Give the backbone structure.
Amino acid sequence: MNYKEVLENARTCIGNYCKACNVCNGIVCKNSIPGPGAKGVGDTAIRNYQKWQEIRVNMDTLCQSRPVDTTLKLFGQTFKYPFFAGPVGAVNMHYSDKFSDMTYNDILVSACMENGIAAFTGDGTNPQVMESATAAIAKVNGRGIPTIKPWNIDTINEKMDLVHRADAFAVAMDIDAAGLPFLKNMTPPAGGKSVDELRRISEIAGVPFIVKGIMNIKGALKAKEAGAKAIVVSNHGGRVLDQCPSTAEVLPEIAEAVGSEMKILVDGGIRSGTDIFKALALGADGVLICRPFVTAVYGGEKAGVKIYIEKLAEELKDTMTMCGAFSLSEITKDMVRR
């Protein structure tokens, strides 16, 4: 099986909303929610993708060729590549019922671990979503990152207990999920958090705490003040607020402001190894990719995930070689043209 066949297989079972496009750029699904689309007119997801394409890479082959090292070290863990599978929840609502959140996470978490990376897992209004996600992470000796929605403190405490039992090496909160349409007026309640509230959650975590959903310097500084060890520059794939800037547009200024003090991850429209290279050149330590991993699971289960990881890895290695960077630390901002 190759990546083209993974996409073809996915189209037979992924549901009515996602079309498993050759390039997942948000144009076809646009504002389909439920489904993989974005909020409002749906332009933020499209903008996320397009802005990465506007950044070009600067080729330089006048250097001594060496083996390429794509290794990333993060919070005491060593990963083969600087990218992660992003969190997704309610797959049977947004895609099809071929998988539940439980079976989806079981496949994704183990496949990522076996191929040298890690998966962020999702959360949902159904308690079984977090229970199954943390169970999947426990099976791979904590090699995964549970992502908790911004619930009230009692619910967060319950979910943190699951995180601790799974021995996860880090935990995230997608703070921007407060804007998800299906979380409004839900029980338990979810919503934004003050710096003091976030600091308390960081302390409860007991492991490196990652705040996902940062889109400006002010938010990054607040996350740092609250004790976060990393942030994810993210607009939640355009699913929580219409008319947002793209993550590529805001990443450089955020990385310049806090990149020396905390780890910077980024998501949103990153679809190739070349895009990953661009993100690292603009100041990110690593990236998250979400929607295409869903397609990979639906199109080939663990084999599909492996094929997609290998595709990204080869594209990244090729770009690094052609730009004269043979380790992640050698990727610099002058290697891209904005």
Summary: DSSP finds eleven helices and twelve strands in the chain. The chain has one domain: 3-324. The mean pLDDT is 95.
